[in-house]
Fold:
Amino acid sequence: MKDSIDRELVFDRNKAAILNVVGFVDSDYDGDLDNMIFISKYIFTTCASAISWKASLQSIVALFTTKAEYVAATCVKEATWLRGLITELGVPQATTVVFLDSQNAIHFTKNDAYHSRTKHISVKYHYVRDTIIAGKIVVKTAHTSENPPDMLTKPLLIAKFEHYLNLVGVHSM
Structure:
């Protein structure tokens, strides 16, 4: 973005109390209606500033939005790695919170009971359940207006885009 030359990623000392890794996850299911493939995206922060982000086109087909959101939630692998890295740097980590904007996907991450609508999802995507059971990661609801991964793939109004930038620690100089 040509107007981003005056922007910087700020690690604010006043927000140093927020040392835990926090994740924001979303999927863009309606981006390709012909092939029914989707984009999963995430942003992880510490000290209220972005430390890791990614948007990637998935190679699997999602027949419903819950599957797309659930598969996107497997980014907890990144959360696990970031927790380990930051712990090795001498900053102990409490429970990591990962925010999703899909109640159904959150329900699937917490409930390992048989679901007829998810029996076709590959076992590798159920890693998120195992991580939650271990107690190191908690999945919570985030309202769409407070879920910054949208800025990675969607056209947004300037005010909303700037709000998302502020949520991940990118500020004007």
Remarks:
- Residues 97 and 164 are 18 Å apart (CA to CA).
- The radius of gyration is 16 Å.
